[in-house]
Design goal:
The complex is a heterodimer of chains A (165) and B (415). Chain A has helices spanning 3-11, 35-44, 106-117, and strands at 16-22, 25-30, 52-60, 68-76, 81-89, 95-97, 120-122. By secondary structure, chain A is of the alpha/beta class. With 415 residues, chain B is mainly alpha-helical. Chain B folds into two domains: 1-30, no CATH class; 64-414, Cytochrome-c3 Hydrogenase, chain B, CATH 1.10.645.10. The chains are: A alpha/beta (165), B mainly alpha (415).
C-alpha cells in the first residue's frame, strides 16, 4: 500500500475500501460519507497540500450494486504527486457531497458530471446542466444504457435505421 | 407594452404632497442583464455569457456552454483506440497535433509501450511547432480583440509557413492525425528538415517584431496590465494550468514536473509571471515562443537515425508502405483498426502540457479493444470555470480580454 493511502487510512480508519496502484497512478476509493473530509484533509495537511484540482469524472458500472463511481484527481504542486480519489454511489441514492468548497474548480467539473452521468452533488451552489441544453429531458448521455444514436426525437431520423457495420 | 407603461408611471410618479419631486423623479436602478454571444466574434467560437452589469461593471457572469457539444467522450466508447485519434483533432482544432500527442501518450501509458528515441524527438519537434502555432494564433486574435490589428497579420503570416510545413509533413494543415500509438506516422523528409532550419533562423527576429507592436502600445498596456488578476492560490484551486497558471507565479509545467518525450534531454526555462494579470500571461506566451525555438534547435542537433514506431506488433500499426505490398501487414492493420488491440483492465490518467494548459486523458479499460470510459481533461473548459471569479468588477470590454487570455477554443471546451 502506498504511503499516501496509508496516511488516509491512518487518519480515517476504515474509510478506504479499495486502493489500487497501477502504472504509477494511485487510486483510493473511500466511503462516500468520508469523501468530503478526506478531500479537506488532503488539501489542508501540511505534508500533502493537494491544492491543484486536475479533473472530476465519473464511471458507470451498470452491473454493480453501487452503480456509479465519482472520480476526483488532484495534484500537489509542492510534493509533485497525484492521487485519484474515488467514491461509489448506488443508483437509488445518487448523491455525494460537493467538493466546491474545497477546490473552487470543482464547480464546473461537478456540473459536467451531473450533466453527463446524473450524479447529484449536495451543497453545490449551482447544479444545472452545462453542456446539454437546460430543457434536455432524454436522460444522461454517458450512462451505459443511453444509446449512442440518441434518444427521443433524435432517435427518429430515418437513416439511423440503416445498418452501419 | 402595458408593462412598460406601468413601470414608467411607477418611476416618474409625482407625489402630490411633495410637488418638488416632479423635478427630481425617483429613478429606478437595477442590474442590467446582457447576453453576449453565442454569435460574437470575440468569443472564439460559440460561447454565450450572460453578463449582469452595474453600469459598465460586471457583477456576475454566467457562461453558457455546449453549443459545440458533439459527444466525443461517448463516441470514444464505441470505437477502437486507433480510431479515436482523428476525433482528437477536432477537440482543439487550432492545435490538433498536441491533442494527438496527449491521447497517444495516454494510450501508451495504458499499454506500457516505450516509444523509440527518434520518434520521441520527432514528436517533441512537432509538438513545439504546434505550440508556436498556438501562441501565434493566440497573440494575433488577442491583439485583434483588444484593438491592435496589425499584429494579427504578422502572426498569421508566419503561422502560414508552419501550416504549409504541416501540409508537407502529413497532408493536412489543421486536422493532422500524424501521431500514432507507439510512434509517428511518417518520418521527416530532408526537405522538411531544411525548411525547419530555415524557419528557425527566420523566426526569432519576427517575435521581436510582434513585441514591438505591443510592448509600447499604450492601449495594449492599459487593457492588459492589471486586468483579470487572479492569485496563485485561487488559480490552483480553480484548476487553471499552463500560461494562465504560470502568470500567477506558480512554476508548474508538466514538461519539467513529469518529464516526457525528449523534453528531459533539452535545456529550456519555464517563464513565470508575478502579478497574475493578462499582461503577465501575454509575456509568458511570448517568452515560450523563444523557448520553443530553443527546444527545436536542440532536438535537431541531438536527433539520431532509428525506428519511428515501437516494435509491438500487437498494438502498433505496420509501416504504411508494407500494408499495400505485404499480406500479413495488411491483415494486421485491418485487425487493429476493426477490432483493436487487447488492452489490460485498469485505469490511467496521463496529462500533457499543451500550449493552453494541462490536456489530460483519463482512460478506464475493462480489457478488449475499446475504452470503457474516456474522459478528456480540457483546459479550456476548466478555465471557463474561473471566468466569473476573474471578471468580477471589470468593465464589459474586459470580458473580451478575459476570454482571450484563456486562449479558449470551444471545440475543446464543449467536446
Amino acid at each position: 500500500m502506498s504511503q499516501l493511502a496509508k496516511r488516509i487510512e491512518d487518519t480515517f480508519p476504515g474509510t478506504c475500501t479499495k486502493v489500487v496502484e497501477w502504472r504509477g497512478d494511485v487510486a483510493v476509493t473511500v466511503k462516500r460519507e468520508n469523501l468530503h473530509d478526506v478531500a479537506r484533509f488532503l488539501r489542508d495537511d501540511p505534508a500533502l497540500r493537494f491544492d491543484y484540482i486536475v479533473h472530476v469524472s465519473s464511471v458507470d458500472w451498470p452491473d454493480d450494486e453501487e452503480r456509479f463511481e465519482v472520480v476526483y484527481e488532484v495534484y500537489s504542486i509542492r510534493t509533485r504527486q497525484r492521487i485519484r480519489l474515488k467514491s461509489r454511489v448506488p443508483e437509488s441514492d445518487c448523491i455525494v457531497d460537493s467538493l466546491t468548497d474545497v477546490w473552487k474548480g470543482a464547480d464546473f467539473m461537478e456540473r459536467e458530471v451531473y450533466d453527463m452521468m446524473g450524479i447529484r452533488f449536495r451543497n453545490h451552489p449551482d447544479l444545472r446542466r452545462i453542456l446539454m441544453p437546460d430543457e434536455y429531458e432524454e436522460g444522461y448521455p454517458l450512462r451505459k444504457d443511453f444509446p449512442l444514436r440518441g434518444k427521443g426525437w433524435r432517435d427518429t431520423f430515418e437513416f439511423l435505421d440503416e445498418p452501419t457495420r | 407594452m402595458s408593462q412598460f407603461e406601468d413601470q414608467r408611471t411607477t418611476v416618474y410618479k409625482v407625489d402630490p404632497e411633495h410637488p418638488e419631486s416632479e423635478t427630481l423623479p425617483t429613478l429606478r436602478t437595477e442590474e442590467l442583464l446582457l447576453n453576449m454571444g453565442p454569435q460574437h466574434p470575440s468569443t472564439h467560437g460559440v460561447l454565450k455569457v450572460i453578463l449582469e452589469l452595474e453600469g459598465e461593471r460586471l457583477v456576475k457572469s454566467t457562461p453558457v456552454m455546449g453549443f459545440l457539444h458533439r459527444g466525443v467522450e461517448k463516441l470514444a466508447e464505441e470505437g477502437t483506440y486507433h480510431q479515436f485519434i482523428p476525433h482528437t483533432d477536432r477537440l482543439d482544432y487550432v492545435c490538433a497535433m498536441y491533442n494527438n500527442f496527449a491521447y497517444c501518450r495516454a494510450v501508451e501509458k495504458l499499454m506500457n509501450i516505450t516509444v523509440p528515441d527518434r520518434a520521441e524527438y520527432l514528436r517533441t519537434i512537432v509538438a513545439e511547432i504546434q505550440r508556436i502555432i498556438g501562441h501565434q494564433f493566440w497573440l494575433g486574435t488577442q491583439a485583434l480583440d483588444i484593438g491592435a490589428m496589425t499584429v494579427f497579420f504578422y502572426c498569421f503570416r508566419d503561422r502560414e509557413i508552419l501550416l504549409d510545413w504541416f501540409d508537407e509533413l502529413c497532408g493536412a494543415r489543421l486536422t493532422t492525425s500524424w501521431y500514432r500509438i507507439g510512434g509517428v506516422e511518417r518520418d521527416f523528409t530532408p526537405s522538411l528538415f531544411a525548411k525547419l532550419k530555415q524557419f528557425l533562423d527566420y523566426f526569432p527576429p519576427k517575435i521581436d517584431e510582434y513585441v514591438i507592436f505591443l510592448e509600447k502600445n499604450r492601449i495594449w498596456l492599459a487593457r492588459t496590465k492589471g486586468v483579470a488578476v487572479i492569485s496563485a492560490e485561487d488559480a490552483l484551486s480553480f484548476g487553471l494550468s499552463g500560461p494562465t497558471l504560470r502568470g500567477s507565479g506558480v512554476d508548474f509545467d508538466l514538461r519539467k514536473y513529469e518529464p516526457y518525450s525528449a523534453y528531459p534531454k533539452c535545456e529550456f526555462s519555464v517563464p513565470v509571471g508575478k502579478n497574475g494579470d493578462t499582461y503577465d500571461r501575454y509575456w509568458i506566451r511570448v517568452q515560450e515562443l523563444y523557448e520553443s525555438v530553443k527546444i527545436i534547435r536542440q532536438c535537431l542537433e541531438q536527433i539520431q537515425d532509428g525506428p519511428i514506431m515501437a516494435d509491438v506488433p500487437s498494438v502498433t500499426l505496420p509501416p504504411k508502405e508494407r500494408v499495400f505490398t505485404n499480406l500479413e501487414s495488411m491483415i494486421q492493420q485491418f485487425k487493429l483498426f476493426s477490432q483493436g488491440f487487447n488492452a489490460p483492465p485498469g485505469e490511467i490518467y496521463c496529462g500533457t502540457e499543451a500550449h493552453k494548459g494541462e490536456l489530460g486523458f483519463y482512460i478506464v479499460s475493462t480489457g478488449g479493444g475499446k475504452p470503457y470510459r474516456l474522459k478528456i481533461r480540457a483546459p479550456s473548459f476548466i478555465h471557463m470555470g474561473a471566468f466569473d471569479h476573474m471578471s468580477k468588477g471589470y468593465m464589459i470590454s474586459d470580458a473580451v480580454t478575459i476570454f482571450g487570455t484563456y486562449d479558449i477554443v470551444m471545440g475543446e471546451c464543449d467536446r
